[in-house]
Structure formats: C-alpha cells, structure tokens
C-alpha cells in the first residue's frame, strides 16, 4: 500500500469517545460516515491494489463488523433489513469494502443457518467479543475440499480458486465433503494458521480490494463437535439451512445498488462543477446542468435506481423476517417465493446498474474519462461481480414463477 493510497490508513479512530448507535437510523448514519471516508481515496486505493488492512480497521472501529452480533456481547443487535442497507451505504463509497462487509455478515450468520444452538451461541460470542471479520473458502464451482476423519477430529484439505476475505479475515468458513460420502460439512476456523495459505493472486478488472484470490487448505483440523449442525456425527436438516443462497444473493444486489448510487452521486457532482455545455446544439445553454438531455439522462437513471431500491428493500424486509423467525417455521414454498423476489431484485439492479455506470460518461463529458476522475471504478466493480452467475437464469426463475407458479429448487446459486 502506498503512502497516499488510503486516507483510512492515517486516521485515528474517528469514533473514539462516542457511543455506538442504538437503532437502525443510527447505524445507517454510521455506515454513511464510513462510506465518506472510503470514497475520499477509493480510486487511489484501487490503483494500488493493496491488501485492505486499513479499510477493515475502519469497519471494526465503526462497529459495523458486529452489527448483527448479540447486544449481550457488545454487538449491535440489528436485523438483516438494516444490515442490507448498511452494506449498500458502504458500497456507495467503495464497492470492494461493501462486498467484504456483506460476505462477513453472511458468514457470521452461517452458524444460525446450519449450526446447533450451542454452536450458535459460541460462534456469536467469539466474533462479537473479539470484533472479528469472517471470510469464506466456499466456491461451489470448484471441487469440494476433502474432509477425512481422524478420531474425534475432521481434517480439511484442498484448493479453492476464490476465497473472499483472504488475509484480512480473522475467521474462515470451510466447506467440504466427508471422504467416501456425499455429506457436506461446514466449519469455522481461525484464518491465521499454517494450513491456510493465500496465493495473493486476485488481480481482476474490478472489486480489486476484496481479497478474493485462491487458497490452499492443507490439513486444517477441527473437532467433530465443531462441524456445523451435526449431532452425533449426523446433520440435522431444516429448510432454513437453505437460506444461505438467497441471503447472499441479496447481499450482492445491495452492494450493486450502492456501487450504482456512488456512480450517480460522483457523476452529478462532476456535471455540476466541471462539465461544459455543448455549444453546437442550436439551443445553447450556459451550463451543462441546464441542457435538456443532461437533465433527462439523470432523471432516467435516478428513477430506475429508486425503483430498484424499492424492490431490493421489499426483498430485504421479506427475507429478514424469516431469518429472524424461529428456524422451524420456514416452509419450502415460502423459501422459494423469497428466492424469486431476490432473483427479480438482483436482475433489475444488474441491468440498471450497468446502464448507470456506463451512461454517466455520456452525461459528464469527454474529460470525465480521465483516469484521475475515476468514474470507471464503478463500472469495473459492478461488471466484475455481476458475472458471478448468469443473469438469464435469474430471469428464468422469475418467469417460471409468474407463468407456471413454480419456485426454484435450492442450489448453490438459487
């Protein structure tokens, strides 16, 4: 990381001496403060492509890392409805850090998704008291890690080509298949250990500071008692277990929306202060901000993002309600209906977000393409992560529900 690559690296804790927020509005305001800090030098940090230790420090200092943690352990005690909006706010300032925070929330909740009551209590106390950040070596397009038994322990071995969180995480979620069976096992382990080696090979077009490179897992041991959701070495299944995918798909939609909002905010500020009116149109204006096509363009983009926000918030409220309800209450049909809402929200923000992050160049002018302006970071970030799974399949899921009344079967991407 260069000396000028991050404002965050030189900041003392800006929240020392302040009380943590106590309600959703306060946490959203805190997230906006974090976003403003990150936005100051997001382009420089992206260019430096360093490991975001300082940025994660800001997340921890702000209290956002323990937003979902129990209040009895010093956490925020907030709901997923608030967490989704917080992710969005942080992504407005830096899409990479919004992604890190969103993945952290999902993996911090993974214990509630699949673990026993005793395991949930232990994990939530551990990460909340320690203010610890989660990463995850769970990439379904790779071969699963191999899990072997050694007495009362399980041993994880293998390689994952993507592992978001990487070196900046304190805890890593592992997933593998028990050797000789088709039984999948999740476990949470400390990141800093000899058996977890990150290659540092994440060098993509966008989301460059997410620490999403490959990782080698060699002989990482956990007690059988730490295998999430297993009692007497037998998994206890619930429909609730399958909420991990729609929950994280909505994480995606929210940081996509935050990226698009950041692009529009940056572009409008540029147009107001720096764009020049076009002098050859026949209805010449003194300011670019008075030109009809500029006004129309921004109006179109903003109206689409407002509509996307409403759709995403609706899905967030729906899934938050079931995530915080008793796990036994969720039916397969209800789970499928929520997955369809999430798919609809995701497909809309991908298409509208990509339009926004491209169209802003037409509305700001040729000089806004300068690397120093950095408008390209928004398109690069959104374009990169929105390739996570093909959008046509999301459209098909919504179409099957509307036309045939069918809900998608749970999978690694639905």
Automatic annotation (TrEMBL):
This is Monooxygenase. One of its GO terms (biological process) is L-leucine catabolic process. SUPFAM superfamilies: Acyl-CoA dehydrogenase C-terminal domain-like, Acyl-CoA dehydrogenase NM domain-like. Pfam families: Acyl-CoA_dh_2 (PF08028), Acyl-CoA_dh_N (PF02771). PANTHER family: ACYL-COA DEHYDROGENASE, ISOVALERYL-COA DEHYDROGENASE, MITOCHONDRIAL-RELATED. InterPro entries: Acyl-CoA_DH_C, Acyl-CoA_Oxase/DH_mid-dom_sf, AcylCo_DH-like_C, AcylCoA_DH/ox_N, AcylCoA_DH/ox_N_sf, AcylCoA_DH/oxidase_NM_dom_sf. Residues 250-388 form the Acyl-CoA dehydrogenase C-terminal domain. Residues 37-120 form the Acyl-CoA dehydrogenase/oxidase N-terminal domain. GO terms for molecular function: 3-methylbutanoyl-CoA dehydrogenase activity; flavin adenine dinucleotide binding; monooxygenase activity. Keywords: Flavoprotein, Monooxygenase, Oxidoreductase.
